[in-house]
Structure formats: structure tokens, C-alpha cells
Amino acid sequence: LCSRARPLLSPTRARMSKMLRLAYLTIYNGAGLVGWAHILSQMITIISTGRYTKLWKEQGNTIKMVQSLAVLEILHALIGLVRSPVSRTFPQVFSRVFLVWIIFDSLYVHPYTPFTTSGCESLEDPLCTEEMTYQLGVMTVMAWCYAEIIRYSYYILYTFDAKWVPKPLNFLRYSAFIVLYPIGISGELLCCFLTLPLIRKGLCAPLGGLMSGCPPNMETILYVYMLMYIPTFPFLYLGMLGERKKRLFAPPLHPPPFLHLFFLLSSPFFLPFFNLFTSCPLHPPLSALAPPPFLLFTKHAPGPTLHREIEPM
């Protein structure tokens, strides 16, 4: 009555599909790595020469292009190309795309800061273009660069085989975020806060000439956007801490020594001797129901598993 289900793909097509997936993800992760490495090199040059005010004029289009490429990661998670959950991927990608196209564009085209204590009635006033505004943008982008270079380097190797990932890179992947996440998110929120006075004056991002002025209720939208960080940041940060504990401090896979005897007694290899010396032999089918229990504690246990490992961003 029960027939074995046919595979959806033939072995040849399955191998071809796996090779195409591997090639695509390698190209995508390599492009992301090269893009952020280029931005980092330019950022170091900008910092060393003190040209903070030239950040967006020189690197704005590059940052937009590289960061906008990350929108594909939402699609990857939706179609199951990668095992990253959409609940983690979407807020990270959306927040950064919103920042580079709306916040940074407004902040660098119409620089302004509410931290000045005198005047600042006109945007032509030098007090309205304090270097602090630009330094916050540099700090935020630098945090993004280090985080993305580590992440894409890890993914390039992990896509081929998890064993290819060296231990220092694995440690950085699940440890650097402890410092980089708070720095990046602090810079993002401060840049949003600095943009509020511009929105009140009707000075929003031009979006390449597609928009003049601010859309209706833009100030309310920005407040809602900033409030979204309250539940989102702990969710992402605690999720990464959980992944860090699992990846770097995983418990041993083998059972404690005192359980070895119990597992041996329940092993099919011991059943013939057990049946020979007892008057009530065990039911023979019991040995065929499952593999030896002690094998379930090893890394290469036979049989399917219900656990699905999730790889975050």
C-alpha cells in the first residue's frame, strides 16, 4: 500500500542544481566582500586625510550600490536558497537601505546639527555644518565595513564546506558583532536624530532628482523608524549571542562515561548474549526498531534529523 516517493530531481539534476547554487552564492558573497573592502580602503584614506565632509560626495554612490545589493539576501531567505531566517534578514537590510537612501542623503546634502548652542538660523551658517555630523556617518560606515567583510569572508568558505572556515574567522564571525553592532546602531540612531531638523524644514533626500521636498508625515515615519530599534535590536543581538554560544561553546557530543554501560546493554550487539543468559528474552524486533542508542549521541548518527541549523546574517 505504501510506495516510496520519487525524488523531485534526478541525481544529475540535483548535482547541477547544487553546483549552480554554489557558483551563484560564491559570486554574490565575493562581490559583497570586494565592495565592502573597497569602501573600507577609501574610508581609511578619508580618515587619514581628515576629509570627513567629502565622505558622501566621494563614496555615496558606491555605498548605495553595495548596500542595495543586500536586498537580494531577503529574496535568498524567502526562496530557501540560504537558511537565514527572514525575520532576521529583513530588518537588517531594510534599516540600512533606508539609511543610505533617505538619512545619509539628507544629512550630507543638507548638513545640520541640533547640538550647536548659538544661532544656526541659516543652513549657510558654518555652525550648521559641524564636523561631528560627518564623523558620525564615518563611524557608522566603518562599523558596517568591518562587520560585512567578516560576514562575507565567512560565507564564501562556509558555502563550500564548514570545515574550510578557519577558527580565527569563525571566532570573529560570532564575536566581533558584540562591539560592532552597538557602534553601528548608535551611529544609525544619531544620524536619524540629526536628520529631524532637516525634515522640519522640508529638506529631505533628493533621491537623484526624483523627489523635491519631504513626503507627507515624514517626521512621523522617522520617529516610528527609530522606535522600531527598541524591539529589533535586542531580538537580533540576543539571537546572535545564542548563535555564538552554539557555535563557539557547543556541549560535547559524546555521552558521559557513566552512561556507556547503559547504552551498551541496550545495543543490538549485546542482545544475543542477553537472550542467551535470561529466561525472558527480549522481543527480537526491538533491536531492529532503531540504531544503537549510543550512536544517537555522536555527530554522525544514522537516520533523518528534525533539527534544522539556522545560519544568521
- Helix proportion range: 55-70%
Calculate the terminal CA-CA distance, rounded to whole Å.
45 Å
Report the count of strand segments.
0
User: What is the 3D shape?
Assistant: globular
Specify the number of helices: 11
Give the C-alpha Rg: 27 Å
Largest sheet: none
**Strand pairing plus helix content: what structural class?**
mainly alpha
Strand content: under 5%
Summary tags:
313 residues, 61% helix, mainly alpha, 11 helices
Question: How would you portray this structure in words?
Answer:
- This protein is 61% helix and 0% strand.
- It has eleven helices and no strands.
- The longest helix is centred in the N-terminal third of the chain and has 39 residues.
- By secondary structure, the chain is an all-alpha fold.
Could you give the topology of this structure?
Blueprint (H helix, E strand, L loop, with lengths): L10 H39 L5 H15 L1 H9 L6 H24 L21 H30 L6 H7 L3 H24 L17 H10 L1 H20 L11 H6 L5 H6 L37
Summary of the model, kept short:
By secondary structure, this protein is an all-alpha fold. The protein contains eleven helices and no strands.
